[in-house]
Design a protein that fits this description.
CATH architecture of one domain: Alpha Horseshoe
Number of strands: 0
Largest sheet: none
Oligomer: single chain
Radius of gyration: 65 Å
Distance between the termini: 181 Å
Helix content: over 70%
Shape: rod-shaped
CATH superfamily of one domain: Tetratricopeptide repeat domain
Number of helices: 8
């Protein structure tokens, strides 16, 4: 009985030992697996930490590169803005210069037009005076180029004093001022002491006055005043001389001459006309 109990106990111990050994093996296996898992986790942790560090480094490098690129971009943008401002200033300056040159060109064009118009007017006046001089000198101008002038007629018999004066006055009354001027000039030259000489000289001035050649008329009237101071044409010469000055815009000389007329010859018809004219100044 004891033997059987011993065997039973031994059997239980053996089976119990086997069971404990099996459990220990399982635990050891599990512990080993856990240790491997821990090692694997540590390895993964180290790899992850390395990746995190590398990522941080890469991220820092990328961020730095981004900052560098941004700095370059901002510097380029600032330079572009400066260039734009400079270009804008140059555009404004160019526009100002163009506007200025345009204004100067317009002014120069207007000035040139005024000068051309003035020159044309002067040429017209000169042409008229040249024609008057030609008429005064009895010149004949060919109508077309290459046409020969007519031969001068044989000299006519000199006219008498009265004939010259009558012919000149008739030409004057007919508006033939060049012919009248020539006849009066011949009378003054041939008969300087004639009683009609001062009248002839006065009518020479009148021919220029009628043709609005006022400067020349003033000079011819002055000849009457100087050469024939006691003649009956002095008041008339002073009056027409003053009016001629008035017509050319020289009101100062016109006033002086008309006042001289009213002072020296107050009772003449010319003086009365001069007084009325003086009221217009």
């Amino acid at each position: 009985m004891k033997f059987n109990l011993f065997v039973l106990l031994l059997t239980l111990l053996v089976f119990s030992g086997c069971a404990m050994q099996s459990d220990f093996y399982d635990v050891d296996q599990r512990l080993t697996a856990v240790e491997q898992q821990v090692l694997e986790q540590q390895k993964n942790s180290r790899r992850l930490a390395s990746e995190i560090r590398n990522f941080g480094k890469n991220e820092g490098a990328a961020a730095q590169k981004l900052r560098d690129n941004a700095a370059v971009l901002f510097a380029t943008l600032d330079k572009v803005q400066q260039d734009i401002r400079l270009l804008g200033g140059r555009i404004d300056e160019v526009e100002y210069q163009l506007h200025k040159k345009s204004a100067v060109a317009v002014a120069a064009s207007e000035k040139d037009a005024a000068q051309i118009k003035h020159i044309e007017e002067m040429l017209g006046k000169l042409d008229g005076r040249v024609r008057q001089i030609e008429q005064y000198l009895n010149l004949e101008v060919a109508v077309k180029s290459g046409v020969a002038r007519k031969p001068a007629p044989p000299p006519a018999k000199p006219k008498s004093e009265n004939a010259l004066y009558l012919a000149a006055k008739q030409a004057f009354d007919a508006g033939q001022y060049a012919r009248a001027r020539s006849e009066f000039a011949q009378l003054v030259k041939r008969y300087p002491k004639s009683r009609n000489a001062d009248n002839a000289q006065f009518w020479i001035g009148e021919t220029y006055y009628r043709q609005k050649w006022y400067e020349k008329a003033i000079l011819e009237y002055q000849k009457v005043i100087e050469k024939y101071p006691h003649g009956n044409k002095v008041p008339a010469s002073l009056l027409k001389q003053g009016l001629a000055f008035f017509n050319i815009g020289d009101k100062a000389n016109a006033r002086l001459i008309l006042k001289e007329l009213t002072s020296k010859y107050p009772h003449t018809r010319e003086a009365q006309i001069a007084k009325k004219k003086l009221k217009e100044f």
